[in-house]
UniProtKB/TrEMBL annotation, chain A:
ABC transmembrane type-1 domain span: 85-288
Protein name according to UniProt: Phosphate transport system permease protein PstA
Gene Ontology molecular function, alphabetical: phosphate transmembrane transporter activity
UniProt keyword annotations, A-Z: Cell membrane, Membrane, Phosphate transport, Transmembrane, Transmembrane helix, Transport
UniProtKB/TrEMBL annotation, chain B:
Family: Belongs to the binding-protein-dependent transport system permease family. CysTW subfamily.
Protein name: Phosphate transport system permease protein
Organism: Muricoccus nepalensis
GO MF annotation: an example: phosphate transmembrane transporter activity
Keywords, sorted A to Z: Cell inner membrane, Cell membrane, Membrane, Phosphate transport, Transmembrane, Transmembrane helix, Transport
One example of a Gene Ontology biological process annotation: phosphate ion transport
Membrane-spanning parts: 27-49, 85-110, 122-150, 170-195, 235-259, 297-319
Pfam family, one: BPD_transp_1
């Protein structure tokens, strides 16, 4: 039997010269593809470097204390970005405070209660879809839902729109982090006679704190740069205003308005704002990763 | 024995009380979690209903023809979704054609080629690209990519491919710099890290034994990727690409900067156009509440939601098929 199978090997491979040529060809293809893939990675890195370099080149020159201490002013009269920065901070902080508890509870439900039930699977699926849903649609929804019926653009509408973006981000990380906890931990707590809610709040949440915090930081980073949802909700405000019932200024909207303006000093301010926001967002991402890694 | 145990248990007096208290706490907490989960479903339903109701006047006024009409005439109050739908699909698909090979290259590099010390930092850098806000891509695209396209890339392509038979029309016309192709290029850069990260994660799930077996037979790295890793992860890879498509369809601010903002269908890929998201962002400010124009924009939002929901749902389903239990 074995003797009859050996001749069935293709003739080409039996010829040592053909086999060597085939081997060389395979090695050449492999080398070419490895070079192309390395080049692809360099290309990806080049984009990031180019974006950062452009921001520094165009924006660093406009960096001064005025940017953070002066409010927006008409073109030609200086001015800074104080009200957009404060407006953004207010909206981002409130949206995080509003969205995080909801996301935390949903994530907890999915990890601790839902299992593989039909309802749990549906919620998980919908949350994942919302995670990637176009943010402009969240803005349009809040416009229809809050802005039109309640008499106009407001900081609150912006807060709600951003909070809706926060929820699925926190859901995903919370569920993932709770699922990483060993079940022996849960069994130990239940074995001591504690009710399930105490097990979750006092033990599971605490054990997963750094992971959940990472999710919150990533969510903050995500909404800090969001522009599209705010176009239809908090609209923007060139005057100083911290009244959430009124249209509210925000950094991304101001950058958008200034970058499209014909005034040289506004355009410079837009680049400076862009530099500030990008450094902030990337910094938050790096901190979030560090928090997760510090968990060990 | 059993009889004894039953008799003994109720004898501890404090026990039923704590049990009931714990039960109430558990019920409240579970109820809270469940209510939050229901809220997510309600949210999705509310988004669909609100966008549909908002767009209803436009659907009523123009009927099914709204989907195909290429009209966008604020003066005559006539609107159609044809141009932005065309722009959305063309830019998103073109973006994927540009992004997928590069994303695959990055994922291959990060999982099989790069030395171990390099994988973490390079992977993080690629993921940071995904964190850059959309509006920054728009400004960068307008300032760096558009002049590059207008001055170098487009004239070169117009002079070569533009003269070619059959496909020439796609690459003809003046080199504006802005337009569908530039928008697609920016979108490609934006979705690149999402696709690359998903591909990397699924490549890492391939059991080491499979790859080692292939290496043991003398396979090269590319052959292992082509014959072992890709067939094993095929479904998830398509899921990752769909995830990128879902992102590309709805990107707004970056596209707004470079699309050229024209409401007609350009035969050339270098011609200006609009996507649903860019049109909504650009025209919203000039639409009075209650106007047919605003209703048309909301109707476009509804259409975009349906398209991206379908794509993202498909993506999740494909990705779950492999990773889920």
């Amino acid at each position: 039997m074995p003797a009859t199978t050996i001749p069935s090997v293709p003739g080409r491979a039996k010829d040592p010269r053909a086999a060597a040529a085939l081997g060389r060809r395979r090695a050449r293809v492999d080398t070419a593809i490895r070079l192309l893939c390395t080049a692809a990675t360099l290309l990806g890195l080049l984009f990031l470097v180019s974006i950062l370099a452009t921001l520094v080149w165009k924006g660093a020159g406009g960096l001064s204390l005025r940017v953070f201490t002066d409010v927006t002013k008409p073109p030609g009269s200086g001015g800074g970005l104080l009200n957009p920065i404060v407006g953004s901070l207010i909206q981002v902080v409130l949206a995080t405070l509003l969205g995080t508890p909801i996301g935390l509870l949903v994530g907890t439900y999915l990890a601790e209660y839902a299992g593989n039930s039909r309802f749990g699977t549906t919620v998980r699926f919908v949350s994942d879809v919302l995670l990637s849903a176009p943010s402009i649609l969240i803005g349009l929804f809040v416009y229809q839902f809050l802005v039109l019926p309640f008499g106009g653009f407001s900081g609150w509408a912006g807060v709600v729109a951003l909070a809706i973006i926060v929820v699925p981000v926190v859901v995903r990380t919370t569920e993932d982090m709770l699922r990483l906890l060993p079940n022996t931990l849960r069994e130990a707590v239940i074995g001591l006679g504690a009710p399930k809610w105490k097990m979750i709040v006092l033990v599971c949440w605490r054990a997963a704190t750094s992971g959940i915090l990472t999710g919150v930081l990533l969510a903050v980073a995500r909404i800090a740069g969001e522009t599209a949802p705010l176009l239809f909700t908090s609209l923007g405000n060139l005057n100083w205003s911290v009244n959430l019932a009124q249209p509210m200024s925000s950094l991304p909207i101001t950058i958008y308005a200034y970058a499209g303006s014909p005034y040289e000093d506004w355009i410079t301010l837009a680049w400076t704002g862009a530099l500030v926001i990008t450094l902030g967002v990337l910094g938050l991402n790096i901190v979030a990763r560090a928090v997760l890694r510090a968990r060990g | 024995m059993a009889q004894v145990a039953v008799d003994v248990l109720p004898a501890a007096p404090a026990r039923p009380a704590t049990r009931r208290g714990a039960g109430r706490g558990d019920a409240i907490f579970a109820g809270l979690c469940r209510a939050a989960a229901v809220l997510v479903l309600v949210l999705l339903g509310a988004i669909i209903v609100e966008l549909f109701l908002g767009g209803l006047p436009a659907f009523r006024a123009f009927g099914a023809a709204f989907l195909a009409s290429t009209e966008w005439d604020p003066v005559g109050d006539l609107y159609g979704a044809g141009v932005p739908i065309y722009g959305t699909l063309v830019t998103a698909v073109l973006a994927l054609l540009l992004a997928v090979p590069v994303a695959f290259g990055i994922a291959f590099f990060l999982t099989e080629l790069a030395p171990a010390w390099m994988r973490g930092p390079v992977g993080t850098a690629i993921e940071l690209l995904a964190a850059v806000p959309s509006i920054i891509f728009g400004m960068w695209g307008f300032f760096v990519i558009v002049p590059l396209m207008a001055g170098t890339v487009q004239p070169a392509i117009i002079d070569t491919l533009g003269e070619a038979p059959l496909i020439g029309d796609f690459f003809a016309g003046p080199p504006f710099g802005t337009g569908l192709f530039t928008a697609a290029l920016i979108l490609a850069i934006m979705v690149l890290p999402f696709i690359a990260a998903t591909m990397r994660d699924v490549f890492l799930q391939v059991p080491g034994v499979f790859k080692e077996s292939a290496y043991g037979l003398g396979a090269t790295r590319w052959e292992v990727m082509r014959r072992v890793v890709l067939p094993y992860t095929r479904v998830s890879v398509v899921g990752g690409i769909m995830l990128g498509l879902g992102r590309a369809l709805g990107e707004t601010m970056a596209v707004t900067f470079v699309i050229g903002n024209a409401n007609r269908i350009a035969t050339s890929l270098f011609g200006p156009g609009n996507t649903i998201a860019s049109l909504v962002a650009l025209e919203f400010g000039e639409s009075a509440s209650g106007s047919l124009k605003l209703a048309s924009l909301l109707a476009l939002g509804f259409i975009l939601f349906v398209i991206s929901f379908a794509v993202l749902a498909l993506s999740r389903w494909l990705l779950r098929a492999r990773t889920g239990a």
